[in-house]
Design a protein that fits this description.
By secondary structure, the chain is α/β, with parallel strands linked by helices. The chain is 33% helix and 26% strand. Strand 6, helix 3 and strand 7 form a beta-alpha-beta unit.
Length: 171
C-alpha cells in the first residue's frame, strides 16, 4: 500500500489513479506495479513516450493509459479516480498556479478519494537551493517555486481541505 501523511494507508490494488505531470513515469509505474490502473497525464509528448517505453520494459503497459494534456484542464469527467497524485511537478510552475492544478485534481477524484501532491520546501537545503536557483537565473532558466510551512497552510486554506482529502508531501 501507499502510506501518506496523517496516518493514512491506501491499498492501491484495483484502484484508478491519475498521475498528474507524470514525466517519464517513475511514480506511475510504481503505482501500477502495486495493482492500480494508472492514467499518466503530461503536457509533453516526449515524456509520455518515455513513460510508455518504461511501462513496456517493466511489463505494466496494460495497466496504464497515456493522456497528453495540461494539468489545468484534465480531460476526464468529475469523480472518475480514487486517487490523484503529483510528484516533482508543482515546483515547475509559479506558486499562484498550485490551486488551479489541485482543484483540477480534486475535481477528477471521487468524493471519498484523495489528492496527494509534493511541495518543494523553500527552507530545505537552503544554501544549495539558493546557489542552484541563482545559477539557473543567471543562465536564463526559470527558477523553481517553493513554499514554507506558512504558505502550505495558506494554500490548503485557499483550496479548502475537503474533509481531509488533500495530503502534502514536502521535499
Amino acid at each position: 500500500g501507499l502510506k501518506v501523511t496523517g496516518g493514512i494507508s491506501i491499498q492501491l490494488n484495483g484502484l484508478k489513479v491519475m498521475d498528474v505531470g507524470c514525466g517519464t513515469g517513475k511514480i506511475s509505474l510504481s503505482i501500477a506495479k502495486l495493482g492500480a490502473q494508472v492514467a499518466c497525464l503530461d503536457a509533453s509528448e516526449g515524456m509520455l513516450s518515455q513513460c510508455y517505453q518504461r511501462a513496456v520494459d517493466e511489463g505494466v503497459e496494460k495497466q496504464i493509459k497515456l493522456l497528453h494534456a495540461s494539468a489545468d484542464a484534465i480531460p476526464e469527467s468529475d469523480g472518475q479516480y480514487d486517487l490523484a497524485v503529483s510528484s516533482r511537478f508543482l515546483h515547475l510552475f509559479p506558486v499562484n498556479m498550485y490551486p488551479v492544478f489541485i482543484e483540477e485534481m480534486l475535481r477528477i477524484v471521487k468524493p471519498k478519494g484523495y489528492v496527494i501532491f509534493e511541495v518543494k520546501n523553500k527552507y530545505a537545503g537552503l544554501g544549495i537551493n539558493f546557489k542552484n536557483e541563482w545559477v539557473k537565473k543567471i543562465k536564463g532558466g526559470t527558477p523553481s517555486s517553493s513554499m514554507g510551512t506558512f504558505e502550505i497552510h495558506q494554500l490548503i486554506k485557499k483550496i479548502g481541505d475537503r474533509k481531509g482529502r488533500v495530503r502534502i508531501v514536502g521535499i
